Amino acid sequence: MPDRTLVQAVRDALYEEMERDDRVCVLGQDVGLKGGVFKATEGLQQRFGAQRVLDMPLAESSIAAVAQGLALEGFLPVAEMQFADYSYPAFNQIVNEIAKMRYRSNGDFSCPLVIRAPTGGGVRGALYHSQSPEAFYCHVPGLKVVLPSTPADAKGLLKAAIRDPDPVIFLEPKKLYRAERQDVADGEAAVRPLGSATVVRVGVDLTAVTYGYMRAVTAQAAARLSQDGIEVEIIDLRTLRPWDVETCVRSIEKTGRAAVVYEANRTGGFGAEITAELAERCFASLDAPVSRIASPDVPAMPFSASLEHAFMLNPDKVADGLRRVARY
Amino acid sequence: MSTDVVPLTRERVLDAYRTVLRARALDDRRFVLNRAGKLAFIISPRGHEVAQVAAITALEPGRDRFCLYYRNFAAALACGFTPEELMLAAFARAADPSSGGRQTPGNFGSRRRGVVIGSSTVGPQIPKAAGIGLALKWRGEGALCYVSFGEGATSQGDFHEGLNFAAIHRCPVIFFCENNHWAISVPQRLQVAGPGVAERAAAYGIPGIRVRGDDFFAVHMAVQQAARRARAGEGPSLIEAEVLRLQSHSTDDDQRAYRDAAELAAEAERDPIPRMRNALIERGWLNADDDAALRDEVNREVEQATDAAEAAPDPDPASLSRHVYANA
Predict the structure, then answer these.
(1) Do B124 and A100 touch (CB under 8 A)?
(2) Which residue of A has its CA nearest to B325?
(3) Both A161 and A37 in a single domain?
(4) Do B131 and A104 count as a contact with CB atoms less than 8 A apart?
């Protein structure tokens, strides 16, 4: 199995799905000869041509709208928003048009497509290349939302998203694009189903539910707690809508404590929804309130290294938060 | 059909005239039913009927795609919706073919008729139609996408994005603006800079044509020429049909509150339906007896459609959660 970074795994998923099914096409800004600003579409236009790998005008609403038109005509478009922060001009197309297509036509129409976007911070991207907008999309019935944290998950879940009959928002943590390499399977063996969480660290004292870049940060925090004799069980959700509540509930029934670690600002973040659901479902099992460990409620992370550092969760901050839950 | 135009025979014109009369009679009945408290909300096509039916008559329902907007009641009839189906939508009954009673009755959709389900936001269908046009171009079967909107929608960024994209890729799209000079209460002088909408086509390097929307033959010819261009691979066209809004924006609006009474009275005298009737009489294609017979026939249809729709069942409350996703 080839050794792949996360962004290479994304590119491989696109390549394999385009080879497998000629309805699959890619569109976005700079996805053509340049291969995308992060190289997620590198070599695709050379292999599949300028029709199936289409450079779009710098206009996100029309990127979503054209993808939608192609989907309505039976193609399987994968649209790239260059940064998740830049998906907002397409918000009406995504939320009012794409997400509600099936519902508002009483099942007569559907809109199977994927919208990919790099998400999250920690790369000195400042306010407009660092945001984590998953909560906006997780709020919308009709959308599915995926946010992988490893090369193998990125590839397997993107392949599943392209094959899914419903629209999928596929958020890729840009901090992890080249952070690690992993053996990633080829072809059908690579596919991973949407909606399934994974227990990435087994522990008995506390459950940490997380996703994206925070998986790695939480793992480092858990290693520190382990030195103090506190064993954290870490769950990587991988898919946020629908999210795997049952895996979390089973873990909390064992540990009796839970925290949710997420990179977005705290208020109204998707972690707040996870917290509420787990509080409702696990009340009788809990020895402490389900706690949120999240970024501060400032508009987004600033450019300055010191301010970015102050914004971002890191192993210290997460370890502090987890300790508070463990000692409650 | 080849890529040639649809011939305008006497039979086709009389059929179109019947559709115009049907739209007016159905709409008049809907208004009465609204005031009687039986219909919650209606958007009237009054004043637009001739332009809408003339445009659709130049196209090929079943082959072409239609992205309609909320005032396209007469266009929907011309696309093949039956009076009973549109009354089912007005009553929001389960058998409403567009949405099963989920949307307000101006959002038309029917996969088998090529009418792409609409929504109630203004303008998103414009770049969507460009995407559909791209797919139709790829398929290369000579089909086109017709998209209609009011002049208010031309203020939206989606108008620019859609025309720009369609022009870049020479997509087979007809952009049809029904300019009634009022977007609810905002007049054209506060909505559209410059002389009008048609002139904007020049910026995209495509034809922009302004026609009198009360002239069936002029509208038909303009759309026919745009269709010929589209099917021949010459790209999109923008048509601005000047029409009158002879009714308030919707049944929740009363335009007497913001429009000049003398102007409204003068516009009522310029109803396009008598003008179409007179044009047919002048051609010797219609006489007063035929006209009266047609109106009787249409009134009977309205009675039957109303009775059937009123008696039809509402959606089952248990269906509320259906069609959010493919498997639900």
Answers:
(1) no
(2) A142
(3) yes
(4) no
The rounded Cα A307 to chain-centroid distance in angstroms is 24
CATH domain B10-310 topology: Rossmann fold (3.40.50)
CATH code: domain of residue A105: 3.40.50.970
Q: Which of B61, B70, B82 is nearest to B19 (CA)?
A: B82
| Domain regions of chain B by residue span | 10-310
Across the interface, of B111, B158, B327, the residue whose CB is closest to A108 is B111
Whether residue A144 sits in one domain with residue A212: no
Nearest to A221 by CA among A275, A293, A285: A293
Q: Residue A271 belongs to a domain with what CATH number?
A: 3.40.50.920
Q: Which residue of chain A has the CA closest to B104?
A: A104
In this structure, how many other beta carbons lie within 10 angstroms of the beta carbon of residue A108? 20
Res B3: pLDDT: 44
Question: From the CA of A296, how many Å to the nearest CA of chain B?
Answer: 33
A83 is in which domain, residue-wise? Answer: 3-190
Judge contact between B192 and B198, C-beta under 8 A: no
What is the interface pTM, i.e. ipTM, of the complex?
A: 0.96
Same-domain pairing of A12 and A116: yes
Cross-chain residue pair B109–A105, CB shorter than 8 Å: yes
| A97 to chain B, closest Cα gap in Å | 7
Q: Is A165 within 8 Å of A200 (Cβ atoms)? A: no
Q: Do A203 and A158 belong to one domain?
A: no
> How far is A199 from A180, CA to CA, in rounded Å?
19
Taking CB atoms and an 8 Å limit, are A62 and B158 in contact across chains?
yes
Query: Which residues does chain B have within 8 Å of residue A50's beta carbon, measured at their own beta carbons?
Result: none
Backbone dihedral angles phi then psi of residue B57, each to the nearest 5 degrees: -65, -25
Query: Does residue B270 sit in helix, strand or coil?
Result: coil
Say if the Cβ atoms of B129 and A69 lie within 8 Å: yes
> If you measure CA to CA, which chain A residue comes closest to B94?
A106
The confidence band for B327, taking pLDDT boundaries of 50, 70 and 90, is confident
- Number of residues in chain B: 328
Whether residues A216 and A273 share a domain: the answer is yes
Clarify whether residues A12 and A97 are in a common domain: yes
Smallest Cα distance from A235 to chain B, Å:
26
**Final residue of a domain: which of A190, A206, A230?**
A190
* Residues A232 and A126 reside in one and the same domain: no
- Looking at A190, A223, A238, the residue that finishes a domain is A190
pLDDT-derived band at A129, boundaries 50, 70, 90: very high
> For B279-312, how does the pLDDT look when each residue is reduced to its tens digit (9 = 90+)?
999 999 999 999 999 999 999 999 999 999 999 9
d(CA A29, CA A55): 5
**Is the CB of A61 less than 8 angstroms away from the CB of B158?**
yes
Chain A CB contacts of B127 under 8 Å are: 61-62, 65-66, 69, 93
Average pLDDT taken over every residue of chain A: 98
The number of C-beta contacts closer than 8 angstroms across A and B is 130
pLDDT tens-digit series, residues B175-219: 999 999 999 999 999 999 999 999 999 999 999 999 999 999 999
Residue A281 and residue A165 share a domain: no
Q: What is the mean pLDDT of residues B264-272?
A: 97
